[in-house]
Specification:
By secondary structure, the chain is mainly alpha-helical.
């Protein structure tokens, strides 16, 4: 279950509570509710502040709203249990089968995993002052907006014709003004140059050339691309052993599963905030989690292949898929061999 799926589950619980009279009639159901990792002191896989968000309009204390929503969320498919913490946070633990569904979802959607329709019906016209960094930033932002279902106008004259577009509202002009790059990035090559320009937030300085061509874990771009190539290598090696990926049993890889589960929310937030640096940071975290897990994937020595190895291989394939998809949105290649 992705954060977007979980948000819809919470919204469905709110609608049910209003329809059944447990929340005051006329309580406005928001378009979306926030889903995030639990804060310190929390528990479970995900948390939402929906009860705090609804409390004033429902005429109840946040804790009371949380008590109304908890059983309605808990009975949804894929939810193991729901706990209330603090002033009314709902902490949600997913059932194991939801982790199976997560991996299947990644493998089914491939590099489009995390793409969605959060911005469907919205239209944007990107404006920037020119220059290499602004141009690269605009390309990445455009890719992120399109991945969330938005309509992006490439030609300023499109705004004059946009009233006829059936899905989008009137276009919103977005001005991108990143801090200009102070050095020549062309010598880095296209992939390292794009990472140097996109990895820092737009208001921060672009990365300098030192270290971006070094093939070691001190270079985050190399680490991300190396993790992808390792995932592909594991699949090739597994094929030689006659092992095919299939997520048949739960795998003890909480950091990696959390990173894969976070991917859709990261892409949506990066699109909404016009911040491709969020994607780059998430790819670093995903690569780090995968590289700590990769050594457990294939049998060692005389060990016989088992369902556990097939499941780990499926998780490795999912990690490589997420890394490739994220790099593609940044306009950076993901080679199978490094």
């Amino acid at each position: 279950m992705t954060p977007a799926d979980l948000s819809l589950t919470v919204l469905h619980a709110v609608r049910r509570a209003v329809g059944e009279g447990a929340l005051r009639a006329g309580t406005r159901v928001p378009e979306r509710v926030g889903i995030e990792r639990p804060r310190p002191g929390g528990s479970g896989d995900w948390a939402t502040n929906a009860a705090l968000q609804l409390a004033r309009e429902a005429g109840m204390a946040p804790l009371g709203v949380a008590q109304v929503l908890r059983p309605r969320i808990a009975e949804a498919e894929g939810i193991e249990h729901v706990e209330i913490t603090g002033p009314g946070f709902l902490n949600i633990t997913l059932a194991d089968r939801s982790r199976h569904a997560l991996v299947r979802d990644v493998l089914d959607k491939k590099e489009r995993y995390g793409h969605g329709d959060a911005l469907r019906g919205r239209a944007y016209r990107l404006v920037h002052p020119g220059g290499v960094r602004a141009t690269v930033l605009a390309e990445a932002v455009r890719a992120l907006l399109l991945a969330q279902g938005a309509h992006v106008l490439d030609d300023p004259r499109d705004s004059e014709r946009h009233d006829d577009h059936p899905l989008a509202t009137r276009p919103e002009t977005v001005t991108l003004r990143p801090l200009p790059v102070a050095h020549d990035v062309a010598a880095l090559g296209p992939d390292a140059a794009r990472w140097a320009l996109l990895r820092p937030a737009a208001h921060d300085r672009a990365l300098g050339p030192d270290g971006l061509l070094v093939q070691s874990e001190t270079n985050p771009l190399f680490t991300v691309r190396y993790a992808h190539s390792r995932a592909r290598a594991l699949l090739r090696n597994a094929a030689q052993l006659g092992i095919t990926p299939a997520y048949e049993e739960d795998v003890a890889a909480p950091r990696l599963l959390a990173a894969l589960g976070d991917h859709p929310a990261v892409l949506e937030a990066a699109a909404r905030h016009r911040a491709p640096d969020r994607v780059a940071r998430h790819l670093e975290a995903t690569a780090d989690a995968f590289l700590g897990f990769q050594h457990t994937v294939l049998p060692l020595g005389d060990e016989k292949p088992s369902a556990a190895h097939r499941s780990r291989l499926a998780l490795a394939e999912a990690a490589g898929t997420v890394l490739a998809g994220g790099l593609a949105l940044l306009g950076i290649s993901a080679p199978d061999y490094l």
